[in-house]
């Protein structure tokens, strides 16, 4: 169980590091990404970006 916690921590660390780079590449602004304000907070649901990144990760995993 501790191994999964370390993997999740490293994944979150990698994602937080890569977020500005991915925004410069245009991810997060695709047509299926939702950005709205509710309950006094801003909410961001990156549906299209998630599907695109999953497809790229699957393609890389298939080729490797």
UniProtKB/TrEMBL annotation:
This is DUF2905 domain-containing protein. The keyword Transmembrane applies. Keywords: Membrane, Transmembrane, Transmembrane helix. It holds the Pfam family DUF2905. The chain crosses the membrane at residues 42-63. It comes from the Bacteria.
């Amino acid at each position: 169980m501790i191994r999964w916690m370390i993997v999740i921590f490293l994944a979150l660390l990698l994602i937080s590091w890569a977020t500005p780079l991915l925004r410069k590449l245009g991810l997060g602004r695709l047509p299926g990404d939702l950005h709205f304000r509710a309950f006094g907070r801003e909410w961001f649901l990156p549906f299209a970006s998630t599907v695109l990144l999953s497809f790229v990760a699957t393609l890389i995993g298939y080729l490797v």
